[in-house]
């Protein structure tokens, strides 16, 4: 399906991988890419590993010349100072171009509320980092200064039961009409290399956010390959 705007693939590693297994993933990806490089024009690939791995992986990506950008999985609502455990926008700015904000797992396990999420969005803006704001339905509040939103129904996350592309496209349409400032709507929840083409074929969707399917380099490569083929396929 010919697209006039880029299609996003955002891999979310969540709380997975040691430094060693993260490096191994990059070595595996490099081997696959060398064997069969993919034409990724029209595709933006972003990986969100643990913050702990960002320094190592941003060096590796240059060394291996892989077409990957980086995102954080979260950002502190504060600029800097006495906030033990927080990783601030100014710390992340040289390592990432994007950050997830408001993922349902953070809302659930860290009781993140809308006023805190607004502060995170503001800190990302200050640091020049693009927020990927996660919502679990079309009715949820979205801060004014967000352009990219990920629709991720909780029941579809990590369950193997993905939302149909048709329904996800309808929600994307609702989000776009409620929030005209949004440029990019991404779907996340059990996306794999086997179902990703249906999302590429849905005009209202601008990308996907795979979690589990990004953990294995071979599966993530295959998912990228499916997208690169589908965005060029005649309609
Ligand atoms: P999943 O996770 O692909 O493993 O369902 C998606 C997400 O939570 O971002």
TrEMBL record:
<comment type="pathway">
    <text>Carbohydrate biosynthesis; gluconeogenesis.</text>
</comment>
<keyword id="KW-0324">Glycolysis</keyword>
<dbReference type="Pfam" id="PF00121">
    <property type="entry name" value="TIM"/>
</dbReference>
<dbReference type="GO" id="GO:0046166">
    <property type="term" value="P:glyceraldehyde-3-phosphate biosynthetic process"/>
</dbReference>
<comment type="similarity">
    <text>Belongs to the triosephosphate isomerase family.</text>
</comment>
<keyword id="KW-0413">Isomerase</keyword>
<dbReference type="GO" id="GO:0019563">
    <property type="term" value="P:glycerol catabolic process"/>
</dbReference>
<dbReference type="InterPro" id="IPR020861">
    <property type="entry name" value="Triosephosphate_isomerase_AS"/>
</dbReference>
<comment type="subunit">
    <text>Homodimer.</text>
</comment>
<dbReference type="InterPro" id="IPR013785">
    <property type="entry name" value="Aldolase_TIM"/>
</dbReference>
<keyword id="KW-0312">Gluconeogenesis</keyword>
<dbReference type="GO" id="GO:0006094">
    <property type="term" value="P:gluconeogenesis"/>
</dbReference>
<dbReference type="GO" id="GO:0005829">
    <property type="term" value="C:cytosol"/>
</dbReference>
<dbReference type="InterPro" id="IPR000652">
    <property type="entry name" value="Triosephosphate_isomerase"/>
</dbReference>
<dbReference type="GO" id="GO:0006096">
    <property type="term" value="P:glycolytic process"/>
</dbReference>
<dbReference type="GO" id="GO:0004807">
    <property type="term" value="F:triose-phosphate isomerase activity"/>
</dbReference>
<comment type="pathway">
    <text>Carbohydrate degradation; glycolysis; D-glyceraldehyde 3-phosphate from glycerone phosphate: step 1/1.</text>
</comment>
<keyword id="KW-0963">Cytoplasm</keyword>
<dbReference type="InterPro" id="IPR035990">
    <property type="entry name" value="TIM_sf"/>
</dbReference>
<protein>
    <recommendedName>
        <fullName>Triosephosphate isomerase</fullName>
        <ecNumber>5.3.1.1</ecNumber>
    </recommendedName>
</protein>
